[in-house]
């Protein structure tokens, strides 16, 4: 009798032990799936930090190569932009996948793509400029002679601050009170009352630009980041609109209404050319940019056709 009792107690203990062992293997498995890494201040507490960080493959000398004319005396923001501001700003977004998604190749291409937009929008280069037309990115940090204050007084969510002017400022220039308001909210900086911060602080200017790159312009739309790194699956409507994953669609996300769907637009070609130029300088090579269809948006229907402005004709 007694021995039977002992055997059944032993059996129960074994079962308990097995159950607890299974439990701990399960826990180990789920932990494995969510493995996160820390790479110091640049990339923290994210699965994206387990691969390279941006400063692993994009260093000061490369930034200097890409933006070699920005500190010349004729540049309009001489002394403003630097590598350190870019990396510091990117640290907020690397844990979300900015420049840290996929293999090193994809990562380098994303940085070249983002900077291609930035370089084109802030360039003061032209056909015969020394160093060529693409050597002049980050020449500006704000619009030089704004023709108006870009205040949409019908926007009650982001009302204009008295006296503030919302002309273009930053690395991907921000215009209009509603855009300053939305980005300020995203970054938790009061840009609605202090739009001038974007031309006073290069780190903040890069943060605003990377924020724009990482966030959809409208709900249920992909971000420029998503369409570039392959996080986005086109819907039937997208396919009908010729919107495919790749660099071309980043222009659709960021500037669709002014650039896309009009064969051979000069501004569109200028953005593409900056991207290709940077791919070369970074040692990736422009041939890695992929086929022409994915590179432009000349055949694409814009995600957000203009007519959004309250004062549209
Ligand atoms: C890390 O790199 C590998 C190979 O380079 C890639 O397949 C993987 O998707 C990357 N991880 C993330 C989170 O992007
Ligand atoms: C510039 O902006 C960054 C990031 O938003 C902030 O941490 C820093 O304090 C700002 N610098 C100055 C001088 O205000
Ligand atoms: C697809 O496009 C049609 C016509 O423009 C529109 O009515 C419909 O809502 C769209 N569907 C989606 C899922 O966006
Ligand atoms: C194309 O690009 C130019 C700037 O080069 C821009 O002003 C214009 O709105 C765009 N659209 C057309 C139809 O040219």
UniProtKB/TrEMBL annotation:
Disulfide bonds join 151-160, 260-297. This is Glycoside hydrolase family 19 catalytic domain-containing protein. Residues 290-313 are annotated as: Disordered. Keywords: Disulfide bond, Signal. The keyword Nucleotide-binding does not apply. GO terms for biological process: carbohydrate metabolic process; cell wall macromolecule catabolic process; chitin catabolic process. InterPro entries: Glyco_hydro_19, Glyco_hydro_19_cat, Lysozyme-like_dom_sf. The lineage of its organism: Eukaryota, Viridiplantae, Streptophyta, Embryophyta, Tracheophyta. Residues 1-27 form the signal peptide. The keyword Ubl conjugation does not apply. Residues 298-313 have a biased composition (Polar residues). One of its GO terms (molecular function) is chitinase activity. Residues 62-287 form the Glycoside hydrolase family 19 catalytic domain. Pfam families: Glyco_hydro_19.
């Amino acid at each position: 009798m007694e021995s039977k009792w002992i055997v059944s107690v032993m059996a129960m203990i074994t079962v308990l032990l097995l159950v607890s062992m299974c439990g701990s293997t399960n826990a180990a498995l789920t932990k494995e799936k969510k493995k996160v890494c820390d790479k110091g201040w640049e990339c923290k507490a994210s699965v994206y930090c387990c691969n390279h960080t941006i400063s692993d493959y994009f260093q000061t000398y490369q930034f200097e190569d890409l933006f070699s004319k920005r500190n010349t005396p004729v540049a309009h923001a001489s002394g403003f932009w630097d590598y350190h501001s870019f990396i510091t700003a990117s640290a907020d977004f690397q844990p979300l996948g900015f420049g840290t998604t996929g293999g090193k190749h994809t990562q380098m291409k994303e940085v070249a793509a983002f900077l291609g937009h930035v370089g084109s929008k802030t360039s003061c280069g032209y056909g015969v400029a020394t160093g060529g037309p693409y050597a002049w990115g980050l020449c500006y940090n704000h619009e030089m002679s704004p023709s108006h204050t870009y205040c949409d007084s019908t926007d009650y969510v982001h009302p204009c601050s008295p006296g503030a002017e919302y002309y273009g400022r930053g690395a991907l220039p921000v215009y209009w009170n509603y855009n300053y308001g939305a980005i300020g909210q995203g970054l938790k900086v009061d840009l609605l009352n202090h739009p001038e911060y974007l031309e006073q602080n290069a780190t903040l200017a890069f943060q605003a630009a990377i924020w724009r790159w990482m966030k959809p312009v409208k709900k249920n739309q992909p971000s420029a980041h998503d369409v570039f790194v392959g996080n986005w699956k086109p819907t039937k409507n997208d396919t009908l609109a010729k919107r495919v994953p790749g660099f071309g669609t980043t222009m659709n996300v960021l500037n669709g209404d002014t650039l896309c769907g009009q064969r051979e637009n000069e501004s569109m070609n200028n953005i593409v050319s900056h991207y290709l130029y940077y791919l070369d300088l970074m040692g990736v090579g422009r041939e890695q940019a992929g086929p022409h269809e994915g590179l432009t948006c000349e055949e694409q229907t814009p995600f957000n056709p203009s007519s959004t402005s309250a004062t549209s004709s």
